[in-house]
Fold these 4 entries.
Entry 1:
Amino acid sequence: MASLLQLFSLFFPCLLIYTASSNQIPKHYIVYMGSSSEVNDEAAESDHLQLLSTVIPRQDSGRISLIHHYNHALRGFSAMLTENEASELAGHDGVVSLFPDSVLQLHTTRSWDFLEGQSRPRFSHGSYQHKSSYDVIIGMIDGGIWPESPSFRDEGMGEIPTRWKGVCMEGPDFKKSNCNRKLIGARYYNVLHTSNGNKTTQMRVDKSPRDTVGHGTHTASTAAGAQVDNASYNGLAQGTARGGSPNARIAMYKACSEDGCPSSTTLKAIDDAIKDGVDIISISIGMSSLLQSDYLKDPIAIGAFHAEQLGVMVVCSGGNEGPDPFTIINAAPWIFTVAASNIDRDFQSTVLLGNGRTFQGSAINFSNLTRSETYPLAYGKDIAAKFSPISEARSCYPGSLDPERVKGKVIICVDSFPIVSREIKKLVAEDAQAKGLILINENGKGAPFDSGAFPFTEVGSATGYKILKYINSNKNPTATILPTADVPRHRPAPVVAYFSSRGPSVLAENILKPDIMAPGVAILAAVIPKVVQGKKPLEYAIKSGTSMACPHITGASAFIKSVHPKWTSSMIRSALMTTATVYDNMGKPLTNSSGSFATPHETGVGEISPLKALNPGLVFETTSEDYLKFLCYSGSSEKTIRSMAKTNFKCPRKSSDNLISSINYPSISISRLDKTRGFRTITRSVTNVGLLNVTYTATAQAPLGLKVKVLPKTITFVENVRRVPFRVSFDGRGASTGYNFGSLTWSGGPYSVRMVFAVNVK
């Protein structure tokens, strides 16, 4: 025992020394100091350097420098600090919050035609094109842009708006002439890169706004790409490609690389976009749902708050961590949060077995295999490498298969190791010279995987069982995988994408998130030119993710802004939300990828109908005061809020998160309705943007047992009445425990204004 104590006494000081020294290793921190100051950039930078010098010792004066400096919409900086220095600086009177820089991840033509078809409008998209007098500028914060894409041609576009203050930064592979009247601005920043193929990372400047990943080009063309005829991905999804607002201008802010997006850089890009004069910011980026802390340590929430304060709309992807609940991100009430759905087009690759039976799998592949020849078919566990666990071989785990036994065969594997991506499984099969790969994966069918020229397809468990049964009942089973064909008029659509993150929000359950759903599965849009099978470079490709859904909402918002230039961000958001559709192309309620009825925690209010949103009748205006009250109710101090908003705002005497339910949002969420306490009343106000002298009548659709009462039941808008309040009371005494979903609709004249609610009865 003594020797153990002696050993511990020797080791423990070493542990203390190591811990202490590790705390003194400088790391990158963001220092947020609230709303922008009145001083110029040079003076503000000097003030921030002076502040740094108060915590960094004189012997380390080389570290008294700013990596990023924020002074347009918000105030603050990022710098290298030790843990002790960061802790000391966090207590400084002018600092609102201080947090480590983190890595955010990048979360795409038929989709617009599909949305218009779903709208069944009383007017056409084309009828509004020439009336769109207001030039909308969209700021894309992403991974850069490929300016030569036909989607960014500027034919027919007028002069760049004089309010535009941005720049077109040059680089070795990007000239000022790459910008035009469509792509009016491009910036680049320090971005994150993996060093030497290992897990360490470093910051470096790419020195060019050019896209090296393809993500930024895809999202930008989805939001505002020009009309391009005969676009396709190597013959798939052929048609006319265009963005949701083809007449809008694009400014690209390259804040990301293939390794992610530093949060400090993302915040800098938001600050610059606001200064440059954009109308809408589109961000298909976010942190993991597991890393969410609070809004004052979230760079996107901080930047979006200041954007909203200055009249700039921010649209964000909700994340790709579905189908689990509480995974939605970018869920602050001042952010328009987007979920993903499919459209009425599918991509299928046929599996042909040696016995003549065929099965349809989901895939995007340009296989050169044909019906004329089949190849030996083998299950992964039967061709395992020596000493490999059967469970790994079944799943095409790297190193688990015997290359000699794989060569020349079509192999079938099960997706029992979700951490091993489809890309890796495909590479395992391809490297072992397999003729093709059939993957059994019930959940992957919602987003087809692009395997390029390698024969690949993905089937559900029921189909997979039939193929395995065929293998087990034949001595020499054979199969082939045919190239992908697109299937038009696919039903049902839209359906919630399996990967789309779900609500409720971890940080604010009394705001319904996501807000809305848009196409995000197998979307065709512009990319970096890609060579497939030695053919002419392909300028368009198919991608999936809430990253692809986000620019659909951005484009729709820009389209509405062009017709209604005086509408605020919250008015545009409300118009899209209250006119969304809750039915698929079979006329049935929306479903998820499991075939169950979808809930508002999956779809938000439903699928966008941009044309209907042009004339919503009534809108819910969420004001700056609503957002400040939200911060009060969420626990932020009055001092912090005043620093953020540059006002003498006073929090209401009563502040609790329950009161969040009554901020003037276009949907209602109540995280707790006590069965024993009777009614809970929520207040709202609607603003008339439609015809005068229209009387609206409220009707509620609620699940059995939940009583919903609206007062007043009718509202009439006459000449001098612009905004009218109303109350909604919920009684859960007879309702089922758990979340109850329903809607409240104000109907009058040609208008139907639908408001979704989610009430958690306990």
Entry 2:
Amino acid sequence: MFFPNAFLGAIGFSASLGLGLAQKQVPLAHEDAPRQPNVVFILTDDQDVQLDSLRYMPFVKEHLIEKGTSFNKHYCTTAICCPSRVTLWTGKTPHNTNVTDVSPPYGGYPKFVAQGFNKDYFPIWLQQAGYNTYYTGKLFNAHTVKNYNSPYPGGFTGSDFLLDPHTYDYLNSTFQRNGDEPRSYEGQYSTDILAEKAYGFLDDAVHDLTNKPFFLTIAPIGPHSNVVIKDASPGRDRSVQFGEPIPAERHRHLFEDVTVPRTENFNPDRSSGANWLLDLPQQNQSNIDYNDHFYRQRLRALQAVDELVDGLITRLEGYGILDDTYIVYSSDNGFHIGQHRLQPGKTCGYEEDINVPLIVRGPGVASNYTTEIVTSHTDLAPTFLELLGIPLREGFDGKPIPLTKGEIEVTAQARREHASVEYWGIAISEGIHQVLSREHNTYKAIRLSSADYSLYYSVWCNNERELYDMSVDRGQMHNLLTHPNSSSSEVLIAGLPISKIVSRLDALLFVLKSCSGLSCRQPWKQLHPAGDVNTLADALDSRFDGFYLAEAMRVRFEFCANGYLVDAEGPMWEVQGRSAPYLRDGATWDEWSMNPSRASHISRLMAFYFKLSE
């Protein structure tokens, strides 16, 4: 990594400043304190992996990457804040939480409460298991100065939440502590205020460590855009302005020569992707210059987060509990700037938006180790529970992530190789150029990664499809399902035609788009109950060709919707006994199968299905 002297000087200054925020004399944990592990979870907002933001965080590198394990293939299930965070805290995919947007009617804190999760989610489970739980920073979108107490978020021993409409206002934040009234911090830097609160909660946790272990979550807004929301005046619409992030004053001159990585998919000469992305114009030079500035502001805003990591590690070490504590670092979703001609933002299913950091340091976790096993946000709640010795819940859509090097190596071959991705609703751009707000940015997708192949497959709500072989097309520039040179005979993997690959991917996506619990954790077994298919490579065996030719297994939408509406989702996968019904609109298997246009496909499919199951 390359850091200018001015940057190193700023680090030294700000680190000493940060230590002064909470320099209390806190007693060390008593020798007889329970040795159950503690957890510090740092959750950033909109932090990328693909654009190299972690390279510019020296304390994260020193304390976490070099002292822990990095999961390079970690994915969010939905590339926007609130649905992703609800998945993280419930272990369920968005189609099972039905929280699919950042605000009502399809999402936000009110939808989270209405779905009943405020009484049955991760912090509640932790408290039931005897843990103290602390949280500071952003919880969910649409958690506001007006609804913060209707009801209060459940499950926290201590909390100090950022509240809308000032959650993303770096210099005018509003926090709400425990049962107190909201408090404004106008003119003060949000991440520094958050750091002081985090250190205070850590003090509280250590004071009570003889009674209970703790789980502390710290959720800064960096490097999210600075958002200013202005209430509507009579006769005028409400104004929401997404500007570039604002760094702390001490960091504002850093990285003057840094630019967005100029990858193949950065502002390409020809359009790429599908649906509305194909209409995006190429960016001119002033647009590119602004986006480079936006990128630098993101890196600068992350420096206060980096210092926060250093302050936490220093305090944990001083308290004598660093070796008993897991430190986990992640983000809710990724981010793009210029890729596929996109303005700054998220909400797409491409790698920049869905691949997010996951770094774990703690007892038994290998140092300076990276793994390529596929993990997702559905796995984090199960992972934390297993780590802390708390029974798992049958309704989890994910499963625990192996954390030791030995476990990773043993399970690497048996663990799933895919992450499911889904999105409903509006695509938005951030910054000052070509402001975008597109409805029906709705799609289902799968990201597969193994030693043998690297694939992304998606179906949009207008039923356009994408397939990328990312082993040779890392930037997802050449859609193999629309590219002029593609054909049914073109080979993609091990000499196999694209049509054969797609038939398997479509069947897998067919299960995943409406899966729940076990069917999410073991989707291939829903297709092959005998248990002899666990990967795409297994499914590509020629003896299954007839099974996958069935048209009934083709994913499609009936129409585009901005939320999870079952009527729009097309055929659904269900399992009843040994049969494999495909249901839509609540129809029974018998009712659906009576449709004459499907009868021949159904009979062929079912005959082949039962033959395989014998």
Entry 3:
Amino acid sequence: MKRLCSSLTTTLLLLLSATGTTAQTATNPVIFADVPDMAILRKGNTYYMSSTTMHMSPGLPIMKSKDLINWELTGYAYDTLSTIDELMLNKGKSVYGKGSWASSLRYHNGMYYVTTFANPPNRTYIYTTKDIEKGPWKAISFAPALHDHSLFFDDDGRIYMVYGNGRLMLAELEADLSGVKPNTTRVLIENASAPAGPNIGLGAEGSQLFKVNNKYYLFNITWPKGGMRTVVVHRADAITGPYEGRVAFQDKGVAQGGLISTPEGNWYSYLFRDYGAVGRIPYLVPVTWQDGWPVIGVNGKVTDSLPLPASRGYNPGIVCSDEFNNGKRPLALPWQWNHNPDNSLWSLTQRKGYLRLTTGRIDSTLLLARNTLTQRTFGPECAAVTAVDVSKLKAGDCAGLTLLQKNYGWVGVKVDVDGSRRLVMMNAGNGKPEEAASVPLNQPVVYLKAACDFKEKADKGYFYYSLDGNTWQPIGTPLTMAYTIPHFMGYRFGLFTYATKEAGGYADFDYYRISTSKDGNTFKKQ
């Protein structure tokens, strides 16, 4: 299977109509999936975007587009951020909700730069390459972690980072990017939240700095108490200031991002919206210029449609089906492991046409299990199915298909101490996992399905099983999905195996197929 799946487009928003036709213009949100903290640049006629995937591995995804609507994954800036215990799910530690956060994406003098920060291990990371689509990426890191920073190459050759929360800082970097130059850190804006009023819940952060027509424009998000996520923009004639600021946008909580222009000279602001359990979903909002200020939106509002090319149809690029018939590594690009994997315990070759997940240690819960393989869920509805051979699981083993977040749910197989197998639905919707259903299983292969309803933030998950792959039976109770801050990520589909008694058992997953309907029985192959 090729690593590159085709584009995830606004068909995830509109899908195919009953007549088989698609919308003729793009619509908001441009991606109905968890793609937060976007940073976008344009090189010629091609746009590149980075985003946040925090505790996932590989991380810091790079996507490309020719039209700002149809995006496809090209790779990741890193395979492994660090090997600290928290990222390895060792000793009961994790980095759920942490890992690498908001990135900055730049092109300068023939080189691409994408940066992020992580705490732990309290470091700032800079990745560089001459080929953003193929790599390889060179890694540089230094302490401390500069929060929500924006990398900026100024015209005089100096390199800066703007960072912070509420009180924004400016630091000059060493020419080789190895760290902050001594005695160069200064307060840039004492209270960047001030334009949004005195009653602030979230201080201004998410900095993205641009230079347009010889002026510097700094975009931030802030959140007034009792209000909504708000875009604040400051401008100055010099990077060091002084800056004047104003509220630039308040609508539907669509905020945090920056500016991008098209080759034709049209401007947009790329922002995202918290949308419940599916995660933080990207919007494009038209921008005009008035008196040297960016004016975001049409009459101050998000537009439902956009004067951009229509979707090319449902042929996704940041999610994909997989028959696991590649026969070799690597996995298809949309796959990410929950934390760093143990690469000795998964295989696409030990059984041709299958993904084998082998247990290597004892774990007490799914959230601590190594080698859970995930992809994004997406809206407004979606479902995933898999077929799994559980004949080689050992007593105490669990394997199946999950909707992964802190309040997770899963359908799969448990092996009891006597070796008998049961189909089980686990529901942790109230924060504590409970066995909601159990059905004896007397065959080695079982078919599993998980479905999501994100329409109007319904945020419900449903689980099913089949003994023949055709006739499906619901199992357990609906999962009340919630976007929890401890995980800080939209729900993920996940394939998993873990041991509670003895390591060494394994499950073989035959395929993973996705659908744009929670109720449909037609699932797209690769």
Entry 4:
Amino acid sequence: MTAPSPTAPSVVARLAAQAARLEAATSAVTTHLTAALPGLDAEEAAAALAVAVPIPVRGAARYLEELAEHLAGHPAALTSRSSLCPPVLLRLTQVLHEGGHPVVRPGCAHCGRVRTDLRQLRPEGRLCATCDANSRRATCARCQREGMRISARRPEGGICTACYHKDPARLEECAGCGEHQNPVVRREDGRGLCVRCWNRPTHTCVTCGKTAVTALVDADGAVCHLCYNRHRRPRRPCGRCGQLKRIARNAHDGEPDLCDGCYRGPEVTCSACGRIRPCSSKLQGQPVCGNCYRRNRQGEPCARCGRTKPVNMRWPIGPLCMTCYNTVLRSPAECSRCGTVQPLIARDADGTGVCGPCVGFAADYTCRQCGRAGNPHSRGRCAFCVLAERVSLLLAGADGVVPEQLRPLATALAAAPTPFQAIQWIRESPNSKLLARLVTEDRPLSHELLDELPPSRNQRYIRQLLVHTGVLGPRNEDIERIPGWLEHELADKPAAHANLARPFLHWFLLRRARQRAAVRRYPASADRDLRRRVSVALELLAWLDQQQLALEDLTQEHVDSWVTGGASQRRYLVRHFLNWTASRRLTRELTVPSIPQQEPQALLDEDDRWSLLQRCLTDDTVPLDVRAAGAITLLFGPSAERLCHLTPNHVQRGGKHTHLMLGRHPVLLPPRLAGLLHHLAEEPLPGSRSLFAQATPGPRLLFPGLVPGKPISTHAMTQKLNRHGIPVRAARNSALAALAADLPSPILADLTGMHRHTAIRWVTYARRDWADYLAARAEDQQEGRR
């Protein structure tokens, strides 16, 4: 038996040269990787290279040399997303990405799909197999259609996909139905099954527990399509909004990647409604728009509310609709087994709530940033942490820090009781966009800065928000915003008109309005009346220009002709302007008649009034604020302005009784109405109209509005009561007429807070006409019974 021959010297030298070449290439690549990724050390880089390019692979040194040369010429290759690179870079970025390093995996140059097998290299980058096949288009040898994707080669030439699926050479007898079809899968015996006979395998999802067709099967188990999209689907920067989100449509034909929020689907004819709309879903294989898809989704009984609605999530508790799903996540409670505060997504045998980990359900709803349970929003964080981040981004200055002046506003926004609504407000509301624009101007916020903006609802909202949070000092906004409104109204008016309108407003109307506001005990909106008086004055001046008349030439005949020629009674308000011009000797003494006071026309029958009052006090289906406001109106008839400005301080509790302060003296409340007002005073109104918490000290409003710190508007309150069958004007007139029939005018004025002259007119009207009115109504009813 002969001994093995020793290795030839040439072979040893060749192996040593290969080892040195491999070591040099590995060292060069490691140097480039540690320079591009500061958080990556040399040992981790070498381990990643060993996985991406195993040493036994033939030509490993050559692959590493290509990689080193590419990294040297392209320092940003790990984050540029460019697929114009060696194939080894595709595998290396995958290994680094799985290791948690900040790299961006290259994708197909056409569709953007991230893969490690982009084999086809083009001038624009590497292509996946699908895009490569789409780029190789030609005329089909069978159907003769041009520009078709060639799927197979036949003796006559290349054929398209449609001809390939109908090719007789592919058809074979299905092992299930016996028909000649294209096989989509083969059984263990080698016989094929057509698409109708093949049942796709199902697994139990490790996240939601639902048994369905899986989208991913890995070491952790199977994951359904819904959970994959929610928790494991890769995220990339959206080409439209720029945020790191799930990509719904990959980039192609010059169009960027689009996330789920930006992608609307192709505009085709909806199979349900027949309109051409973006259709991103399908029903029975046909395109359908979003509205029709939601309308035709099949529902199941919800395990929590029992209503048959589309299923949004399947928990151990059972299928849940969207409303109950959000309710459970946003109201965590103490688990009956482990005692931790978690969303209770399961039930014990006795019906008590149990968290997911206690029943083996692998779903973590704990915020990774603050550790708070429930209220999940995005990327493992709760809505409160996301809201704090969005507030900082909204109010931060050029240096990235929230200015000291805006700290109270940032605190109030971050403490919003409904974080999801506050996040939506920051993202979508025009008010937040106006606030962001003011912050970016890098000027101290002030009332004067806001006065420079055109008058609008957004300007008024931002001003009140800044006042409510203490950023700006309070002022009588109903009066002080009139000068800014006038300047924008005079922008396109002649200079002569502006020279008259400005002193008329500042020296006459505003001076009197400020004097009245200083002594007024009850709130009253004067801005609408002031604007109407100025607008009427400007209309008169424009009419004089049309008639080629000077103001000093105005006569009584001209005034009478202009006042009676209008379609509405607002022209009678010109008497304020003419009184001012006469006192300044700009015109002669002119007379404009006052609008005669009209007596109340809308009145409720006493039976109808008491029936409505009984409904307000006992009907639980009516909203609480409507019941309280309706009952107060039906009993005491306060003005809508005074009703909306009620606070808990106006509700006074005694030993056994509760009183309401509408005027100088309290008025006794019925027990049921007192209970309604106590409930409004002690607990926030369900579905409160304001997004932000109480940010300044002081009593809370009983009827809050949309604007922070402001009550609901009188128009909104009137419309709300009318929608629930409570006619405000008729209810108020009937209540005041009933009180005036029993009380002297001084007592009526003290109890209701109205002016004494108004109280005298009501008492005079009630004692003169109320009895005749009731007698006439009673006579009409008797005739109707006959």
